[in-house]
């Protein structure tokens, strides 16, 4: 269970279980940032979030690259 004070970062959040988790956290009122390598998939995921998407951010990054993880 989350609330509006919580901030959640989900790697692999543009599809599958990551996107499902993002939706659940949004429904519970959290501010959510999803991370993935494909900017277009991230944009589609944000569009699919609907009204709760106001609390959703997307960042393109490859978590296998240490410098990109550090910049998150």
A few lines on this structure:
The chain has a 3-stranded parallel β-sheet with strand order 1-2-3, covered by helices on one side. The model has no long low-confidence stretch (mean pLDDT 88).
Q: What does this protein structure show overall?
A:
By secondary structure, this protein is of the alpha/beta class. The chain is 39% helix and 22% strand. The protein has helices spanning 16-27, 39-48, 66-71, and strands at 7-11, 31-36, 56-60. Strands 1-2-3 form a 3-stranded parallel beta sheet, with helices on one face. α1 (16-27) links the parallel β1 and β2 (31-36). The longest helix is centred in the N-terminal third of the chain and has 12 residues, at 16-27. The radius of gyration is 11 Å and the shape is globular. The model has no long low-confidence stretch (mean pLDDT 88).
Blueprint of the fold:
Layout: E1 7-11, H1 16-27, E2 31-36, H2 39-48, E3 56-60, H3 66-71
How many DSSP helices?
3
Structural class: alpha/beta
Radius of gyration from the alpha-carbon trace, in angstroms: 11 Å
Kindly report the spatial arrangement of strands forming the biggest sheet: 1-2-3
Euclidean distance between termini CA atoms: 24 Å
Mean pLDDT figure: 88
Largest sheet geometry: 3 strands, parallel
How many strand units? 3
* Principal-axes shape call: globular
User: Which range best describes the helical content: under 10%, 10-25%, 25-40%, 40-55%, 55-70% or over 70%?
Assistant: 25-40%
Low-confidence stretches: none
Strand content: 15-25%
Order of helical and strand elements: EHEHEH
């Amino acid at each position: 269970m989350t609330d509006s004070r919580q901030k959640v970062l989900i790697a692999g959040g543009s599809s599958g279980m990551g996107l499902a988790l993002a939706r659940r956290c949004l429904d519970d009122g959290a501010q959510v940032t999803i991370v993935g390598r494909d900017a277009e998939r991230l944009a589609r995921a944000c569009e699919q979030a609907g009204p709760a998407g106001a609390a959703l951010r997307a960042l393109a990054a490859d978590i296998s690259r240490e410098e990109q993880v550090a910049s998150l």
